[in-house]
Amino acid sequence: MKLGIIGLPSAGKSTVFEALTQTISMAEKKGENRINTMQVPDERLAALSNMFEPKKTIFARVEYFLPGMMGSLKDQKIWTQVRDCHALIHVIRNFSGYGFDEPMPLDDFNALDQELILADLMVIEKRMERIEQDRQRGKKEYAEELALLNQCLKHLENEMPLRKFPELTEAPALKGYGFVSAQPVLVLFNNDDEDDRLPVIENLTNKEDCMVIRGKLEQELAQMSAEEAEDFLTEFKISASATDRVIQRSCELLGLISFFTFVKKEVKAWNVKQGTVAVDAADVIHSDMKRGFIRAEVIAYNDLIEAGSYQEARKKGTVRLEGKNYTVQDGDVITFRFNV
Ligand SMILES: Nc1nc2c(ncn2[C@@H]2O[C@H](COP(=O)(O)OP(=O)(O)O)[C@@H](O)[C@H]2O)c(=O)[nH]1
Ligand SMILES: [Mg+2]
């Protein structure tokens, strides 16, 4: 899962990036991209690791990407760079002081959302010009693509981001576009240290996925030892660090579930979209597994824990054989049988 961090200048993007990735600022260079991966925390994986005692326990990972160009929003390069992200985290300034004006979260949100809309408009206009040239030269017809693009255009011209029209942007003819206004967005209010409430803002908190982070506080937290952090969490009444909360919300936003695999050496967690069938889950691991897919041996996490061991579960009959079209469930422990 790749998450792009965007926001207006001074919203606290760098601060939030450091909080989420538990990195320390190495004098960030202007214009330079920052990227870092973190584990997707999952207690079930630890329990499985206890059971199987593998050499390695491998968590699913999330990649945070902070484009370095965010100071110049009109530069289309930023938007090209975030196009392959699975979701965007839109950081909004909700703190004041230190020479900052009163925060204006709704205005800020809309200002950046308009940039996303503009970026997509430009992509569509360019493509349409191209299609027109091709048509004049008697090349193939693009009737369907054009019709879909026109629908997108209409929404964008009405200042509506394309994420409000998933059935449209998921059409096969539009798959390759990677519209930035179509990407799922998690709105992250960057609050002052003392304030952990989600502001209620009509037209924003009721329309978008929103959550709060106290960026500066969490950035400090991210740099503490586990011991120091514990005191700090209690003092500021933080239930879990921002890292965990943001990852969890991002998974929810994207409709991701986890399944687990084990071989002698390693127990591993994988993220897939809800509704993924067994053969496509196998593909996430290796394309050979999809090609040569025979069966999936599946047990629900809870059944396995209850049985105490894989052998016991087998005896109890809770290990099932499933076919290609079995819909993977969150927590499934799967062994793929394949032959290539
Ligand atoms: N009070 C307060 N200040 C913050 C917070 N987050 C960031 N800042 C300050 O705001 C300024 C801009 O933050 P920065 O992360 O560089 O913003 P960016 O331009 O979006 O990357 C810096 O001086 C930060 O220390 C916060 O949550 N609370
Ligand atoms: Mg910055």
Automatic annotation (TrEMBL):
Domain (TGS) ranges: 255-338
InterPro entries: ATPase_YchF/OLA1, Beta-grasp_dom_sf, GTP-bd, P-loop_NTPase, TGS, TGS-like, TGS-like_dom_sf, YchF_C
Gene Ontology MF annotations: ATP binding; ATP hydrolysis activity; GTP binding; metal ion binding
Alphabetized UniProt keyword annotations: ATP-binding, Coiled coil, Metal-binding, Nucleotide-binding
Cofactor requirements of the protein: Mg(2+)
An annotated GO cellular component: cytoplasm
Coiled-coil residues: 121-159
Name of this chain's protein: Redox-regulated ATPase YchF
Organism: Candidatus Desulfatibia vada
